[in-house]
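User: Please predict the structure of the protein below. I'd like the answer in structure-token form so I can feed it into my own downstream comparison script.

Assistant: Understood. Taking the following sequence of 168 residues as input:
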Amino acid sequence: MLKGGKPNSAMIAPDTDKSLLKRLHGIEQAREVPNDENHPRMFRRFVVRGDALLHPMNRSRLDATPVDVKLRDISRNGIGFICNQPLPINSCWRIELQLAGYAIGSQALVVRHVREVGDGMFLCGANFVIDTALLALLGVEPSLLEEPEDAGQPNVPDDHFVAPGEVG
């Protein structure tokens, strides 16, 4: 660990390779499409550049070392970033946003897509979600949080309230 609690083993070089930047620019240009039925977007994306740390929210994960990431874009319901490891799809993390080396906020997220964009560099997209610890406090079994949406859920009409103790 470096001073200030930042990891040093997962650092991304500040001077990123120009071919990687060119490839990322091409991906960003290809994504800039209007909202339509083929490319639905709930909210507008904004290009952002900065540093962040990902902290695993899975308490069974053996290595709790934060993952250093570089921000690419953000919207009201998601974020794009680059990291040096392929994150598992549907894995839950807490992203700690930084400004001038200081944490300015954090948000729970779930990884939705991962794409290798260079030698050992991955472009990741994630949606903001409710904190898994809060769900556990409300009675949701933590082991079920990374399963597909319809796995093991009772078929209950939307207008029926099910107390947390009644599920499962």
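That's the full token string. Residues 139 and 164 are 5 Å apart (CA to CA).
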